[in-house]
């Protein structure tokens, strides 16, 4: 009788999770999207956040300095191996149109006196990336906008070309405004519906957190735990979410698109950079009909 009594009196094991587990957000993707409403994260943000002091600049959350003494390791990688930097916060502006029209108008915002231009033969073929300083239209040597890098898409036999211009986020709005002015691109080609806005709306409707005294945080969702997580934010910290991201000119036929955070950019420094790219990237088999 005493043994049976002890069995009944034995307390059941507590099912309450630890404090760390209770504070963990149920939907990490929705939580990350909520934390990116003001400052966009790069795709390598989680890796950097664990190892770097983060700063908020130009609408992004960037790694500023490492938490550990890794200067010797970085120098060793640059001189003997390979060091990779994430430059995806740089903004990419895409220009499409006839080659002659592109070169004619782009010549107004640069000068051959400063070095290379968009008409450089090695860069125009698409084999090499070029760099130059941009100025306001017909204002050289005054009213400098800033340095940019560019790369042409190789020719495909058509007179239409494609050009990508990489600019610093602090200079993006001024350069984009000047490009739209010289190419007369005022009409939006596509209306942009910002994903961060839809993500926040979905989060408010689907993932409502109930905080009450003595109760756990719960999600009020129709499907409960089977709810589909909100998509990862893909946007640009330098662009108004309610603005369009593509403009076209009815007179010149030139189209300008803002491809920021759509095309990732990495920089490899070191003697083993080319060998690492060769081992990482494999040529695709192209079938011609």
Automatic annotation (TrEMBL):
Domain Pop1 N-terminal: 4-97
GO BP, sorted A to Z: tRNA 5'-leader removal
GO cellular component labels: nucleolar ribonuclease P complex; ribonuclease MRP complex
InterPro entries referenced in this protein's UniProt entry, alphabetically: Pop1, Pop1_N
PANTHER family given in the database record: RIBONUCLEASES P/MRP PROTEIN SUBUNIT POP1 (PTHR22731), RIBONUCLEASES P_MRP PROTEIN SUBUNIT POP1 (PTHR22731:SF3)
Name of the protein in its database record: POP1 protein
Organism: Molothrus ater (Brown-headed cowbird)
